[in-house]
Amino acid sequence: MSSGHSEARSLAVLLAQLDPQAGLAERHLWLIALCAWLRGNAQSVPETLERLALLVDTVQAQPETCARLQAWWQALAGAVDITPLLADFGFAPRTALFSELAERLRLKLLPSSPETIDAAELFTLALPSAFDAQWLAALPDDLAQRLVGLLSDGPGLHARWQRTLLDAMTYCAGQILSTGFAPELRLRMSESAREAQPFAALIRDVESLRIEVLHSLRTPDRLEQAAQGLRERLDACRAAATTVYAHFEENGISVGLVFRLRQLRARIVRVRELLECVLSPTPALHAARLLGHLVQVAQERHSLRAVLATNSSLLAAKVAERSAETGEHYITRTRAEYLAMVRNAAGGGAVMAFTTLAKFALYGLALSAFWGGFWAGINYAVSFVLIQLLHFTVATKQPAMTAPAMAAKLKDLGSGEAISDFVDEVAHLVRSQVAAVLGNVLVVFPAVLGLCLLIAQFTGTPAISAKEAAHVLEAQHLLGPSLFFAAFTGVLLFVSSIIAGWTENWFVLHRLDSAMRYNPRITALLGSARAARWAHFLRNNISGLAANISLGLMLGLVPAFAGFFGLGLDVRHVTLSTGQVGAAAASLGLGVLQQSAFWWAMATLPLLGAINVSVSFYLAFLLALRAQNVSGVERTRLYAAIRSRLRTAPLSFFLPSRQAS
User: Fold this and answer.
1) Three-class SS state of 431
2) Helix/strand/coil for 649
3) pLDDT value, residue 311
4) Phi, psi of 399, rounded to the nearest 5 degrees
5) Are 179 and 260 contacting, i.e. CB atoms less than 8 angstroms apart?
6) Could you give the CA distance from residue 610 to residue 617 in angstroms, rounded to a whole number?
7) Do the beta carbons of residue 171 and residue 188 sit within 8 Å?
8) Which residues of 217-253 are buried (b: 16+ CB within 10 A; e: fewer)?
9) What is the C-alpha separation between 7 and 65, in angstroms, rounded?
10) Cβ 480 vs Cβ 600: under 8 Å
11) Do 167 and 83 contact (CB within 8 A), yes or no?
12) How confident is the model at residue 360 (pLDDT cuts 50, 70, 90)?
């Protein structure tokens, strides 16, 4: 009871402060205070509705207060135009993703002022909580009608509300029209969608509805016919916009275009919501529901995560799909493919032996941190590209490519057979990684060892000094930070796969292969035949080149930049680390076998390979699962099936079966 008296006293104080003659900011501050009183502790919807009922009862019992409230409402409605709030709230002021990110960041960091005629700004100040959407959605019709009655003593409020809704529909339809005619979208629509021209007649249909709603002699049949015509036009506009996605499937994705399409489809939905509100037999109730929806929009409007997640999901799917196409080449399913992987990895290990020696040579130049990292990155990038062109393999580059290929099998998990097929794919993948790591490591170590011995034989001095050799063994010590650095290297491997997928998508989106093949300036310079060969080569290899070059530069430059900021990060790539241990062993001679540091380093190497592979694979696999919208329940089933296979057939993850041919 005491709580009820306290609420009544607070309401009495609040109503006593109501002054329709006050300034703009003071009137808006009173509205904000009233909404805060209604919200209470924002824990109980029934309690908020009881407070609203108390407000209505109190004002109805006080004619003088009711008159002041109506005058205050007229001053508010005259100063603030609600039409932009209904039509444009929640949409980007400019149809570009990065400008929207900047706008949301501004809304999060900078405070808003109640001294405003912007209805959207006032709306977010008065109803800032997600709880406001809950109580507005639960508002009963009778209470909503009583509240409307407090604000107006005649039918004029309903007529003004209808005109406001119709104005908002016209505004929103104009935005849809301009977006639908934007060249970057129109040229990507299907030919039938362009010929139908659904956007051209949208404004006319909205104006036809306006006439039927506001005309005093309108009949229900004519009104329903105009409303149905507008619904069909909106469906046609939405269908035309959807045809753009088919163009993305064939020719690459632009995040900016995806963002504009999502904005377009959301505006079409907004027009339908406004239409249902105009036609509603319970306008007060539908107005409350519409305001509740706008509160939810306001919550998303302030979220950076929401806009990034919404507009990057389709790009993530495309990046995963393009990586999957490349990753298929890295998965072995038969004994012949398994042995071929070992041979290709052995070739990669042989190339990496020369990379290791080149790295020590760069150390000997004593370059500054940046230039040392830069030329080390160039060394890695050239080696990785050479391995690609020779059709060899670097083991740790595989997982970030193969995870999307494996997740592509998850598009249909409705049957147990699909789960079993997926587990088979996991076994194929793990075997492929084992073959590639073994091929790299078992060749790079003796190759570096042999090259170092040859250098010592012909020059009379070891390839690296004893001090450098001791430093290598110390840096690879199992009890040091090497395992953490290996995990960090796995992140860089994943990032390189993202760069590869994005680069290929960008290459395809801008049709650069076609430009190289047919552009007159390029064909005049290279000749038609050579231009066609280059276009074909880049179309097939652009993803691998981007991955190799970016990975090489990151392996060289990231430690240099991290050192500048005092982070002390380094990289541990299993193949390079194995080569370095081989060089140290050659420098120290047979006596190295008696040093514990050597055996600690040797114990670290297999763990480096496992961590490189597992971290890059895990990150890429998470991206692929998100791209395929695999639910948590389905993931649990997958993990259980993998554990079951490990218990029943553990060797299948390391060696191909004899039946595989």
Assistant:
1) helix
2) coil
3) 53
4) -60, -40
5) yes
6) 10
7) no
8) eeeeeebeebbeebeebbebbbebbebbeebbeeebb
9) 17
10) no
11) yes
12) very high
Q: What is the pLDDT of residues 141-161, one digit of tens each?
A: 999 888 888 887 656 677 888
Token output for 127: 């109803």
Res 639: pLDDT: 80
Asked whether the beta carbons of 263 and 95 are under 8 A apart, the reply is yes
Which of 239, 317, 310 shows the shortest CA–CA distance to 91?
310
Which residues 6+ apart lie within 8 Å of 100 measured at CB?
Answer: 92, 93, 94, 259, 307
DSSP conformation class of 349: H
Cβ-Cβ contacts under 8 Å for 260 (sequence gap 6 or more): 95, 179, 182, 184, 185
**What tokens were used for 587?**
């420098």
Question: Among 82-86, 221-225, 501-505, which is the least confidently predicted range?
Answer: 501-505
Distance CA 144, CA 127 (A): 17
| Model pLDDT, residue 139 | 92
Residue with tokens 């430690």: 559
Closest CA to 68 of 10, 151, 156, 143: 151
- CB atoms near residue 20 (< 10 Å): 16
DSSP output for 13-64: HHHHT--TTS-HHHHHHHHHHHHHHHHTTS--HHHHHHHHHHHHHHHHT-HH
Closest residue by Cα to residue 625 from 634, 613, 612, 637: 634
- 242: helix, strand or coil: helix
Output b/e per residue, 456-488; b: 16+ Cβ within 10 A.
beeeeebbbeeebbbebbebbeeeeebbebbbb
Residues 6+ apart with CB under 8 A from 460: none
388, 329 in Cβ contact below 8 A? no
Helical residues (DSSP H) of 89-201, grouped into ranges: 97-109, 119-126, 130-137, 141-151, 156-180, 183-186, 191-196
pLDDT of residue 619: 81
Q: What is the pLDDT of residue 1?
A: 44
Does residue 624 carry a pLDDT above 70?
no
Mean of pLDDT over the chain:
85
How confident is the model over 15-55, as pLDDT tens digits? 999 999 999 999 999 999 999 999 988 889 999 999 999 99
What pLDDT band is residue 623 in, cutting at 50, 70 and 90? confident
Model confidence over 571-584: pLDDT tens digits? 999 999 999 999 99
Quick check: 218 pLDDT over 90? Answer: no
> Which residues neighbour 321 within 8 Å (Cβ) at sequence distance 6 or greater?
404, 408, 627
Q: Is the pLDDT of residue 357 over 90?
A: yes
Q: How far is CA 366 from CA 448, 467, 583, in A?
A: 22, 15, 19
Residues whose CB falls within 8 Å of the CB of residue 91, separated by 6 or more in sequence, listed in order: 175, 263, 266, 267
Phi, psi of 81, rounded to the nearest 5 degrees? -90, 120
Q: How many helices (H) and strands (E) does the chain have?
A: 29, 0
Q: What residues does 118 pair with on adjacent strands?
A: 81
Pairs from 230-234 (Cβ < 8 Å, separation ≥ 24): 230/205, 230/206, 230/271, 230/275, 231/272, 231/275, 233/198, 233/201, 233/202, 233/205, 234/202, 234/268, 234/271, 234/272
DSSP string, 148-170: HHHH-SSTHHHHHHHHHHHHHHH
